[in-house]
Amino acid sequence: MTDFPTIPPHPCFDVAARHTHARVHLPVAPKCNISCNYCNRKYDCVNESRPGVSSAVLSPFQASEYLKELDKHIENLSVIGIAGPGDPFANPGETIETMRLARLEFPEKIFCLSTNGLNLKPYIEEVAALGVTHVTITINAVDPEIGSSIYSWVRYEKKVYRGREAAELMLKNQLECIPLLKAKGITVKINSVILPGINDHHIEEIAKLVASLGADVMNCIPVLPTKDTAFEDIEKPSSAVMKSVRAQAKQHLGLMSHCARCRADAAGLLGHDFTDAFGMLQEFALRPLKPEHDRPYTAVSTREGALVNMHLGEAGSLYLFKQTPNGFQYVEERSVKTTGCGDRRWKDLAETLKDCRAVLVEGVGSQPLKILQNSGIRVIQMTGIIDEGLEGVYNGKNVKAVKTPEAFKCGVTCRGNARGCA
Description:
This protein has 422 residues and is α/β, with parallel strands linked by helices. It folds into two domains: 269 residues, Alpha-Beta Barrel (TIM Barrel), CATH 3.20.20; 119 residues, Nucleotidyltransferase, domain 5 (2-Layer Sandwich). Helices cover 28% and strands 22% of the residues. The protein has eleven helices and 19 strands. The strands form four sheets. The protein has a nine-stranded mixed beta sheet with strand order 10-9-8-5-4-3-1-11-12. A five-stranded mixed beta sheet has the order 16-15-13-17-18, sandwiched between helices. It has a three-stranded antiparallel beta sheet with strand order 2-6-7. α7 links the parallel β9 and β10. α1 packs parallel to α2, α1 runs antiparallel to α8 and α9 crosses α10. It is elongated and about 70 Å long.
């Protein structure tokens, strides 16, 4: 048996292609529909390479613009993929729209997806129609008892499952997808995370079953113990264990043996990422979420008109600015509601700011953040000089005082009652 079936030169599926064909993962899928005991998607380190890590999340339009710029800098960028930082099909709208925009710009490139498979089935027809040729499904167990020790919970069709019930549902949905993908001519790779004492004795069973369903390639990935997870103290599988499980799996299907445990925002050759991609990603994350040529303004939550220094929930008005040939210009002060009925308050604010491409705030609650961003308004949490934020919005420059979403905790810097923005 050869290591690989005959496939196009995708660096994850072709050993030689990793030296010649670059790939990019577009981080457009932040939500996840399962909780794995070895995964922590909140952590980000620019020097760490593992799935689930991304320094920013892009909208489909931002991702398309980023991709066009990246293609100018990376030679032979041949593969466009979506692998998180959550799951592509916990974010199906963003995933499909990103692929559609990318396909319009780059019809000659290879398109791939990496998913847990829980919610993949309803989108297989659409994925195939978009020209996706490679799909990876992470299957860590085909025995629900083992699976129940790996997954903390599974959320499917607005219901949360736990224990054996969660593992059974997960496995059923995953396995159903393999023959459906193969019927569309899509190459299927199975990722299995090797967890000593939990599933390391079980890998051959996985390989045998997925091979019988038509899977093409398997990738056995040693677990990377990660802080603040249920498995943070799990031992790393030894070289002997990895050699053994791979030998067992190889009896049933081809193996990928050169995995680099890529980040959800990886770009460049496998194992040799393009170093400038990080800064470019940060830049494009500050651009408009949509191509809104009729949104010339940026709203600012400020006390005196010079600094970004107010939480959105306590701002009775917002200052509006626009870019002109002579620099940034103040437009007007626009009143906003300071109280209201839950989501209605923020939907009204989105309507009030429908001519704004972004809003600069010191802090914001999770629900107004979601509502504003879904309305196409970029929310930038920062402190400091207004012009620095405006440079980021209009000119794509890095905002030195930008905050990560975790930097703000409701009730800490806000003078509200810590009950959320209502």
